[in-house]
Design brief:
This protein has 326 residues and is an alpha/beta fold. The chain has eleven helices and ten strands.
Length: 326
Amino acid sequence: MGNLSKKIVFTPKKSPLKDVHDIKFFLCYFDLYLTIIKRTPMIKCLMQIKEEKSTFTALSCISNLTLFSLILSFTMFCSSTYCNVMQQFIASHIPLREDGKIDIPPYIKHIKLDIGLSYNAPMSQQWLSHESDLWVFGFEPNLNSVNTIKQGAIKRHPSHGDPLNPCYVGESFFVIPCALGLLSGGFVNFYITQGDCGCSSLYQPKYFAVEKVVEVPLFRLSNFFDLFPFDTHPVIEYIKIDAQGSDLDIAKSAGNYLAERVIYITIEAENDQYKNTINSGNDIDHYMKSIGFIRDFSQDTKDPTYFNPRFLDYIKKDKVKIFQRG
């Protein structure tokens, strides 16, 4: 038992893809390939068939099975290659097992995701200071914020939460410097606001002054879950999303994992301060209920929070702690 309780500090691997710009060249050509392949008559035909969901029609429309096999094989090869690139990128920030899944020690019993860290990751600090057997995975596309968190942020205003203690970094807190959204496999513009204290966004601000626009890598949350070791840690107890208008996009990007593996989720409803967002309280409520979640009116969270009733028996046996403030 003594060995099991010994904490492991993760040292990032030296990967050729450890920097987000190292993968940009590949992603540009991968996106170009997808653009070309989707425009070929065969694929356009198959995409239409898929919508019609007709197997008989599909078979009758394929006049050249050899060509189709080649296209399908090449598509699968490129998809596999892209997954490997993403895996290498994540391996620079999170320890992985030999099979490519995230390596979580057996003494860790609780998993939380902190999406949108601002400059100080205050929610992660609160969680980790109250649970010794917890790992937190944080997502933040603003590299300045990521570096500040790792070095030890200084609270900029009394109303802000306590900054993350850097002693957690690489031990029980792991930050992935990317944006999350409905698309995957490319780079998108990220609007960094002046004196950013958590107002930067993938969506253009209406009122905040923009200091600069940078390109950041964009993944789906499901891409992360594809690498998660659900064989040893079957559930994600809590996800907090505070992403300035991208919140519902991120929740949707989890795909089936959200309904099958997540117990609680808190999603900020922000639909007024950024252009072209679909992220209102009603939008969030409608979607979450459509996938089986119910609203949870916990006093420990401020933003809309939802519970997955599929895990009712789980929370009766294992206490799940949730906490969130704006």
